[in-house]
Amino acid sequence: MAVYKEEKTGTWRVIYRYTDWTGEKKQTQKRGFQTKREAQAWEREQLNKARADLDMTFKSFVEQYTADMQTRIKENTWATKEHIIRSKLLPYFGKLKMSNITAQQIITWQNELMLPKRKKNTNCKKPWMPHTS
């Protein structure tokens, strides 16, 4: 695991080694980071993914989930899942670490999803109240 500054471009590069699911050792790299901190954060995230560590962000977990599940299910089913993930889950949980997501945060998220529906229906008559005209 190494972070280098490329003198020619002035950007940072990460080279890291890992063991894949078959036990084979691999090496990969990514270039073009503007700061050393960005490069190190990317490296940490990749290592967490490789270890399937719960210190990874929810967004990284979704990337792994996508790689695993997208080919296993029908195209329309995946399109529905992807829409829900992109529009409802990632905006709320994307930057949180998996290990830090609590039941209370999930309940709060669910309540926020239901809130707009309640606001839209404020003019509706309640089903248990008789109609008065």
Could you provide a short overview of the structure?
The chain has 133 residues and is of the alpha+beta class. It is built from 4 helices and 3 strands, in the order E-E-E-H-H-H-H. The chain has 2 domains: 53 residues; 54 residues, no CATH class.
Q: In sequence order, what are the helices and strands, one letter per element?
A: EEEHHHH
Q: What sort of overall outline do the alpha carbons produce when their principal axes are compared? A: globular
Average residue pLDDT: 82
Total individual domains: 2
Please state how the strands of the largest beta sheet are arranged side by side. 1-2-3
Distance between the termini: 74 Å
Largest sheet: 3 strands, antiparallel
Q: Helix count, per DSSP? A: 4
Derived from helix and strand composition plus strand pairing, the structural class reads alpha+beta
What's the β-strand tally?
3
Share in helix? 40-55%
Strand content: 15-25%
Radius of gyration: 22 Å
Low-confidence stretches: none
How would you characterize the overall build of this protein?
This protein has 133 residues and is an alpha+beta fold. The protein is 49% helix and 17% strand. It is built from four helices and three strands. It has a three-stranded antiparallel β-sheet with strand order 1-2-3, covered by helices on one side.
